[in-house]
Amino acid sequence: MPAMSESEAVAADAARFPVVGLGASAGGLEALSSFLAGVPSQPGFALVVVTHQHAGRVSLLPEILARRTSLEVVAAVEGARLEVDHLYVCPPGARLALLDGVVHVFEGEDASGDLPIDAFFRSLGGDMKERAVAVVLSGTGSDGTVGAKLIKVGGGLVLAQEPASAEHQGMPASVIRSGAVDAVLRPEDMPARLRGHAALLAQGMGHEPLPSRISADLLQRVLVLVRDRTGHDLSSYKQSTVLRRTERRMNVRQIADPAAYVDYLQDHPEEMDQLFKDVLISVTTFFRDPDVWQRLQNSALPSLLRSVPEGETFRAWVPGCATGDEAYTIAIAVREVCEQEGIDVALQVFATDLDSAAIEAARSGLFPAGIAADVGPERLARWFRPERTGYRIRQDIRERVSFAAHDLLQDPPFTRLHLLSCRNVLIYLQPRLQQRLMPLFHYALRPSGILLLGNSETVGQVSELFEPVDQLARIFRRRDGAGAVRGIAELRLNVSRRSELAVAPSARPDTGDAKELASLVARDLAARYVPPSILVDADGEVVHVHGRTGPFLELATGRPTCNAFFMARPGLQLVLTSVVREALARGTRVVHRGVEVRGEEGRRVDVVAEPFETPHARSGLVLISFEPCRPGSLEAPGGVDELRIWELEREVERTSEHLRRVNEQLQRSNEELQSYNEELQSSNEELETSKEEMHSLNEELHTVNAELQVKVEALSQVNDDMANLLESTAIATVFLDRSLRIKRFTQPLTELIRVIDSDLGRPLRDLASELDYDLTKDAEAVLRTLVVKEAQLRARNGRHYLMRILPYRTTENVIDGVVVTFIDTTELHAARVLAESRRVALSIVDTVREPLIVLDRALRVMVANRAFYRTFRLDPAGVVGVVLHEVGAGEWDIPELRRRLAEVIADDAAFEDLEVIAAFQGIGRKRLLLNARRLRQDPEQAELVLLAMDTVEP
Q1: Looking at the annotation, which residues are catalytic?
Q2: 72-75 and 95-99: which strand pairing?
Q3: DSSP-assigned states of every residue in 579-624
Q4: Per-residue pLDDT tens over the stretch 526-552
Q5: Residues 238, 297: one domain?
Q6: Is position 539 within any domain?
Q7: Longest C-alpha distance within the chain, in Å?
Q8: What is this structure's pTM?
Q9: 389-434 pLDDT, tens per residue?
Q10: What is the C-alpha to C-alpha distance for residues 116 and 129, in angstroms, rounded to an integer?
Q11: What is the pLDDT of residues 424-466, one digit of tens each?
Q12: Fewer Cβ neighbours under 10 Å: the N or C end of the chain?
């Protein structure tokens, strides 16, 4: 790998520590001071402070903070690279952004309307991902809420100041309501939490790719616990997503050991709820990817809206709607197109999600001020109403969106839809489920209906169901085709689940051990000297009673019940219902003072309700205390009539509040019932369609079965052919899996490796071999590198083999082991040895200075050395392959020589110093002394005769 440059090394180093964004406004200086008091000189993270300060003023904040911390405090300037153990302060009126750990400062107002803390949190989350930390401190409004939600989606940590400790509760309360907060702490307690967070990150938590610390077994245990707690199976989600969110929760809880985290889940059921919400990632934004919505409004929506017949309703569905941003976005986009094109059509948007808390937030239609950056000033003024804590969607849009809890993978779909927007949901599901949902989407849409997917999503391998309208924006139109028939058969109908409106038992967690819970409640009440009190759940069911509650509760007529709403004495029924709902909705203490308990002469009480949370108690519990009226609780104008009027006014206020909540509850119930009705109608249509298609599908199954039978027979034939081919080659072959266990072998292999049929599945290293060679080592190397290995081997039996190891590739191009072949090269090796011997012999012959020739049985010249050609001045072309007595001009036609050579061939009789005198062309008369003998070689080869000669003077 090339060496990392200095700038790259610095950037990599900057990414190794967390970056903590501190957002504060009114009252923030005191909170920052308390926070910094607990930060050591080397905390292991960098701090960036962003506050609300007007441009043009000289800020003394860096100097003030420098006196309260030992960290180096500097003003954030353009191009500064973040360093660990440093504190950076945003200049007044500026916007900060990060890119690769480098600070960028933008002066002046942000035209998008993004608030300064939200703007920095957005950039921080995008740049640092899981190493981003958002801390929201005292301040008014809701700045920081939108950015904190995005940081949590990216895997970062979000902390909020405990509202009771904040001078102004607006900002921390807003981010707490959003559900993005991982911990609510006092400022002085936050540094210790952050140090632990930094230490875990330093150990490698949060790195990509995910560490393999969470074993498959532990992950399965986590999934089972969450399923039993929530009733939802997270195994459908991508394992990488579940692992990443599980590690994030471990980081939040500061637990490094996965096994310890599983134990923590078992002991703290509320942590399962948090993990489930983290996996759902119930966060979205208005007009996410603005170019997509612009393309949708310009291309697909106008023609789609014009195609709606008069009197029909334009129907849209947003599964995985989270907090409702996208559902309201669709309603706004449709209304804008209708106004621009002059189209008059009714609109109904169905928005569903697994997260019931997100659904409740969506129903309220109240969003933090930070949405201004996503919505824009014109739309903000047109479709939203400003409120003290943010912006609320206008009623005409709210009425067109119905929210309901719905499981996309199990519950029946909404049908007869013109538009289905499922953006950034499929990317978290396993590919097989993504493909299974496409026929469901096709079925849910009307002909020519529009499917809108996220930027990283596609219709995949079912392109016959959808055609692209705008591939870049991921806008697809429904096609009509045979693929829809198969899609209907794959839908999972679960009508019974939706026909029962009662809450499933799995949705109501166990209260834990009753004695332990009673002990917890008693200790908590005793510590605060609580008067008569009851612990109830959201439905009013009494979980625990403390003290004498007889003056306030009594058994109602009829079947006995433990519901406080029914048991409350006259005057308390509406109050108890109201305080429980309000305490759960607001998450804070609620007090109704001076409540008259009818039937108890002159008795008035202050009813105090407060959410009850302990590590072992389930969520959704409320502690109600009946306290004696405080002095002043009954203060009212003098006189009996005025007192009575004052009492009636209080009663009217309580009744109005109760009616308002009842109305909200009725509206929610209406939306839920509408959703159930749609699902039941959808189920009915699916059943009807399925009934009509069953016969056709049955015939298809018969056809498919016949085709499969043919394929099985063909496969059997191919298998037989392959087996015969392997055996006919007589090549020793063995197939090994990825663990180098034997899958198949040919019979010749048994000559090298002692293997029998019962050894299938055994590791290769367990078997004895005739080879002095580590076959396992090289097989593992081939598996690792995918490089073919060849080697010449000699077995102990003396035979020679060419070994070749190749990767075993499946038809899907997956490496599933290796194939090892041993080709017997013994004869080839012998031939090579012989050829080498002959080459050596010829080389020797050629170097002898005396003339030599080699003759066969017919006395043809097979070989002659250079001395022969040089002595008799002959050319090899006229010698090799020519009978000896015909060589040259016939000078070698000597009868005595021919006779003696015949004897050598016939009787293996050698001769020496045979004198021959002859005249040779070109060199004249010569006297030769000839020596001859038969050459010894393989009996199967022809006899050869070596004829050597010395020339002497005549």
Answers
A1: 25, 52, 143
A2: unpaired
A3: HHHHHHHH-S-EEEEEEE-TTSTT-EEEEEEEEE--TTSPSSEEEE
A4: 544 568 889 998 888 898 888 888 888
A5: no
A6: yes
A7: 172
A8: 0.55
A9: 889 999 999 999 999 888 888 888 888 999 999 998 888 888 888 8
A10: 19
A11: 888 888 888 888 888 889 989 999 999 999 888 888 777 788 9
A12: N
